[in-house]
Automatic annotation (TrEMBL):
Naturally occurring in which organism (per UniProt): Pseudobacteriovorax antillogorgiicola
Cofactor(s) needed: Zn(2+)
Compositional bias of kind Basic and acidic residues: 171-180
UniProt xrefs under PROSITE patterns: PROKAR_LIPOPROTEIN
Residue segments, region Disordered: 156-180, 264-283
Alphabetized GO MF terms: metal ion binding; metalloendopeptidase activity
Any one annotated GO CC term: membrane
UniProt record similarity statement: Belongs to the peptidase M48 family.
Protein name: Peptidase family M48
Taxonomic lineage from the root: Bacteria, Pseudomonadati, Bdellovibrionota, Oligoflexia, Oligoflexales
Length: 332
């Protein structure tokens, strides 16, 4: 990708991210037919627009449902850690935007285009900056590898509409909380369609965003992509100088919170049934023992025991004090 093309795509990301947080009144007008770009470069620009518009819509739905935990110092810290980890990946030229969802559910969401949302519960249950960085790095891998975008692009119309597998009866409320009107149903619907709708490179942004919500909240991306994101994310965090076993420590801690033993974390098997209700994380990801076994296999290959990484507990502990008391945070 040429430098001018990188700058063009970065400008799209900036404009759409500003629109996402309310700094732009209308969607940016980007001329995809700029002279000087090859057909392939134009295709990449259109793809970037599509990706960011779908991701912005998905992130908006999550923020609307959960609410945002609006502590600017903490959000700025999360962005600092996230962008640092991203700079250690092969996606350093991408723009990432991080925010915190006001729910005690332990999860993090990667929306296409670089919108990454962590929950208050995820931050609270981390014990160090290294663990926070590892969780974020997993989501960066999802975005950078375009896992969601490729999944959506491969879906048929029936799959996109949820028809192929029959009616979806028990979708979480998050999927439907921001149902969009058809484009011509109302003035608001028409404006919305102009803003983020339309078939971009053959994929309808509104329909794709709804299908994407079903994937991240119910169906999951699939074990292979989650395993890839775990290994890639661990690599980015390690390359950033963080403690190699941060992600396995985090995963084991949340597994123990569900009533399992530490030994269960490392047996490499699908989890036994917990007495506690399955979370969205449980439904959409492989079991913690399977994920840990996959990560440990990678760490053994790179001789991670010989790597001295930082945990960053002091700074993280100071930032965690900015979280709300657990009883006051919204439960998902």
């Amino acid at each position: 990708m040429t430098r001018s093309l990188i700058l063009h795509v970065a400008n799209i990301a900036l404009c759409l991210s500003l629109a996402f947080i309310g700094s732009c009144a209308t969607s940016p007008e980007v001329n995809d037919q700029d002279d000087g770009y090859s057909e392939e470069e134009k295709r990449l620009i259109i793809r970037a627009k599509k990706e960011m518009e779908i991701g912005r819509n998905m992130a908006g739905r999550l923020l609307r449902f959960y609410g945002v935990y609006n502590d600017q110092k903490l959000v700025r810290y999360v962005n600092e850690v996230g962008n640092y980890v991203a700079s250690r990946s092969q996606f350093a030229e991408r723009r990432f935007m991080f925010d915190i969802l006001n729910t005690e559910d332990i999860n993090a969401y990667a929306c296409p285009g670089g919108y990454i949302l962590l929950t208050v519960g995820a931050v609270r249950n981390a014990s160090s900056e290294a663990e926070l960085a590892a969780v974020i790095a997993h989501e960066i891998a999802h975005v950078g590898k375009e896992h969601m975008l490729n999944k959506l692009a491969s879906m048929s119309e029936d799959e996109m509409d949820g028809k192929k597998s029959g009616p979806q009866k028990n979708l979480p409320e998050e999927v439907t909380v921001r149902k969009r009107p058809d484009a011509e149903e109302s003035a608001a619907g028409a404006l919305l369609a102009k803003y983020i709708g339309g078939n971009i490179a053959g994929l309808n942004a509104l329909k794709a965003a709804k299908a994407g919500m079903s994937i991240i909240l119910e169906k999951g991306l699939g074990a292979d992509l989650e395993f890839e994101a775990d290994v890639e994310g661990a690599r980015y965090a390690i390359d950033g100088g963080y403690y190699p076993y941060a992600l396995t420590d985090f995963l084991c801690r949340i597994h123990i919170k569900k009533g399992f033993s530490k030994e269960d974390c490392f047996d490499g098997k699908p989890s036994k049934k917990s007495s506690k209700k399955d979370s969205i994380l449980d439904k959409t990801h492989p079991s913690v023992p399977q994920r840990i076994a996959n990560i440990m296999s990678h760490l053994q290959k790179i001789d991670a025991k010989e790597i001295v990484g930082a945990k960053g507990r002091k700074r993280f502990k100071a930032m965690k004090k900015r979280l709300p008391p657990a009883a006051n945070a919204k439960q998902g």
